[in-house]
Amino acid sequence: MNNSQNSKPKYDLEERTFQFAKDVRLFVKTLPRTTANFEDIKQLVRASGSVGANYIEANESLGKKDFLMRIKICRKEAKESGYFLGLINETNDLKNNNEAERLIQEAIELKKIFSSIIEKSK
Question: pTM score, two decimals?
Answer without folding.
Answer: 0.89
